[in-house]
Specification:
The chain has 15 helices and seven strands. It has a five-stranded parallel sheet with strand order 1-2-3-7-6, sandwiched between helices. The protein has a two-stranded antiparallel sheet with strand order 4-5. β2, α9 and β3 form a beta-alpha-beta unit. The protein is globular and about 80 Å long. About 40% of the residues are buried.
Amino acid sequence: MTVLDHRNQPAEADTVPGWRPGATAPRTDPAPLLPDAEPHRVLGTPAAADADPELLCELYRRLVAGRRYNQQATTLTKQGRLAVYPASTGQEACQVAAALALRPTDWLFPSYRDTLAVVARGVDPLQALTLLRGDAHTGYDPRATRTAPLCTPLATQVPHAVGLAHAARLAGDDTVALALLGDGGTSEGDFHEGLNFAAVLHAPVVFLVQNNGYAISVPLTRQSAAPTLAHKAVGYGMPGRLVDGNDALAVHAVLTEAVERARNGGGPTLVEALTYRIEAHTNADDATRYRQAEEVDAWRAHDPVRLLEDALRGRGLLDERLAADAAEQAEQLAARMRAEFHTDPELDPMSLFAHVYAEPTQQLREQAGQLAAELAAEAEAGSGAGNGAGNGVHGR
């Protein structure tokens, strides 16, 4: 409704002009947009008995591999092979479900904590960790993998996802974008702008907020007074969904429904997954300074891997073969990570300029020329030093 619409509607007694029940352009009814009072769950409920056995087993294999992936990546930081690693231990259900809910033609927009989702999407583990190793801005081709680079600034990937989804719809594609972020990201302006544009443009995009309780050391109660973060969806005019983020089957179901809704023209959805970051924010953080061990232990009892194991046992699906196969695949992944990270990569400094602009600016060309000249000078100096050493110059 525009300003002119408001002006042209006759005012009624005791009403604000333009706010009349049954008006030509009615406001959106908020009731269908509100999240459920309780987080959606499947595991541990009668609905789990109807779950697809193949999906359950696939989720289990990927969660076991994801847990091992987090453990190995954390070890690599202690060995100095990774500069930093924000572990998603305890959040594996969100990460795996996000990857499985998408088609190969869809796009994933991850945050810095979502390397497991990137790997679950099919990206090589070494390439997925390139940024956190400090080697390059990203180690994989976003266009080829349909996966945006890991985003370290909070929530800036949100408007990017909206823009891509809107562009895909204009092009006639059925592509859906899924943006991952944490509860801390919802405090950023990019989150507001992205959701507002998504709703107004009716873009085919889904937002998954992995609410792990803390934005580094800041608890959610110091970030938002909303009943849930999913309630924020109503303010933008899109549905909000609340789900148990440690219930892999529930997260997969909610995300799959939201993705297909977006694909079929239903517009965006905001999903809040209640989960927990078992490890510290990163290897540089001391989580004991702002949370109690009892809190961590309580969430360990609601571990996503254990929940899925219990469900599989209840269905008679978790036998020795499945457990052994899942463990073997996880160990193969960890062994591959150790082997590939054992060798230092050969980096090309000139690659810094490769993907900044489609057409390099004059300033960028000048900077590239300066670096090329410096590298050439270093190479020449090194060659001369080598020749001098061969002639015994440095042996005097």
